[in-house]
Amino acid sequence: MSHPANGNETTVSSRTMELIVAAAFMGVAALVMYDSWRIGARWGSDGPEAGYFPFYVGLIMFVASAATFGINLFAVSASSNFVGRSELKQVLQVLIPTIVFVVAIGYLGLYVAGAIFIAYFMVVLGKYPVWKVVPIAILVPGVLFMMFEVWFLVPLPKGPLEAAFGY
Amino acid sequence: MDALLSLIHGFGVLGDPMNILYMFIGIFLGVLIGVLPGLGGANGVAILLPLTFSMPPTSAIIMLSSIYWGALFGGAITSVLFNIPGEPWSVATTFDGYPLAQKGRAGEALAGAFTGSFLGAFVATLLITFLAPLVARFALQFGPPEFFAVYLLTFCSFIGMGKESPFKVIAAMMLGFALAAVGLDTVTGQLRMTFGSTELLRGFDFLVAVIGLFGVGEILLTMEEGLAFKGRSAKINPRVVLQVWAEIPKYWVTCIRSAVVGCWMGITPGGATPASFMSYGLAKRFSRNGPRFGTGELEGVIAPETAAHAAGTSALLPMLTLGIPGSPTAAVLLGGLLIWGLQPGPLLFVEQKDFVWGLIASIYVSNVAGLIVVLTTVPLFAAILRIPFSIIAPIILVICAVGAYTVHNALLDISVMLVFGVIGYLFKKLGYPLAPLVLALVLGDMAESSFRQAMLVSQGSLGVFYANPLVGSLVTLALVMLFWPLISSALALFKGRGDSTLASSK
Questions:
Q1: Interface test with chain A among B179, B390, B443, by most A beta carbons within 10 Å
Q2: Count of A–B CB contacts within 8 Å?
Q3: Helices and strands (H, E) in chain A, number of each type
Q4: What is the rounded CA–CA span in Å between residue A90 and residue A96?
Q5: pLDDT value, residue B1
Q6: I want to staple A69 with a disulfide (CB 3.0 to 4.6 A). Which of A22, A82, B220, B418 is the partner?
Q7: Is the pLDDT of residue B158 over 60?
Q8: B166 to chain A, minimum CA–CA distance in Å?
Q9: Listed residue (B418, B409, B436, B437) closest to B211, CA to CA
């Protein structure tokens, strides 16, 4: 999925992104190796120590990502754009409300946060009139509530509204 | 003969009407999951897993596997009607399915796809019925070194078979192993990579990872593409179906070849997606209609669908007999089995006969049921597909959050899911494969413990992996797969040189 890099759409090149991700992999691998070494990655008196297996996992991950890093660092081919600006905007339009939604679950409970999230999404991204939005935003969490709390007895995070109704 | 008797016993287990009901619910939910963008077999089953906790294990796994068959069927609907593959394995179905729909022959394409799927699944189920008990009996002799060798072979074949960069496959796989190691080490009782956090004590649950990687990641990707649904309408009536069924015997060679390709790719963990592409490619090459493929040939719809379903079904064979799933969705089913205290592996066939044969019998019945469900409900699902993305997307995200929460009743897991979603999006854009990551996360603990036990037996000598012919040949095969990219390019170089010397001697 490479997009042609044109003037106003350029964000970051695929190559830069490849390098960042490979470097992140190497960082994670180093962390894994460090922690495994800390708890013992050698042969103990009673067999392999707790860090023995993860240490080599980290080592292999480090070497493989270093290879990816190297390949991209010395790649001669023209680098394409990782994601267009308008596309990135669309992705963030979903991602940021979702993050807010996930944080809100802790305070409002899943049902209320879900209703607000669906409503926001439909109004802002879908440009739907309010009379179309409200039924869906109430109905979907309502059905989920019936399914989980009433029929299958699986409790989901609940907030002040549910508490007011006695749940 | 033994297998046949056990199978008849298995159909007895199915006699419970509740099991049949769960099967139909499962198939319906499965088709729904297959049709909706962002929900697929793997994360769909993961999200619905907690709902089955109150059921008996046999009913639960029948419902979950039915969801899986339903998702396999459902992918074809979007491919044919909307030119959007609902599942990765139905990409090849769009090549001829959508052109047929454009010609107004959507009904034929769908009937062909569903029938092909059914045939592929049927062949794979026959294979499971008669081969699985033999494999299980053989695997009873396995010790820790043999099991580790089988794990090694599984993971090495991802490197050899994958079309992604081998370094990226290895990196993604090792990330899975590393995440699996987080938490309490069950052998020594030490804490690994928790960095003092009590939340990390639990480790990373692969179900949460699956929901994030496949669900949230997929929504982000779909959003980027700015999806606009422009679908063809479809009517399926009995006349069209019968007409297609009359036509299918003409393509018997393609059907058999696709089923064989599918079964092979399903058992070795190639999975349904490469199987469908390979089958389409082979059909195009060998069929008399080959040159017209891509313009709307029924054969070009049947070939990939038969292979995808055969692969999807036969992926259960290594899962049941060895405890090694052949696909991410099979991995989720395996996770379900573990939650109910059933340890997949050769002993399952000895200790849980009712369960195993009930499941195998259910595959036969649920594929017939699936065929009936999809043939009758296509217009309904086509209508669901016309619901705009800005309504469907938030609902799916809410459902993903519910699924991630219910795995452990932990709020942090919802945030973890979101992080995995972003990782999934980045990985897909950069060509890191997700399947090895998920399988490593599932199998990490088991692979590690078999490795440790093997090393304990041998007192730390790697020689134990060449101690007998069985483990030796498994390890050798694994190494061949590991270095296959190098070997194949060396062979190509050698062949190329051979050709050029031939050319120069002329």
A1: B390
A2: 172
A3: 6, 2
A4: 10
A5: 55
A6: A22
A7: yes
A8: 8
A9: B418
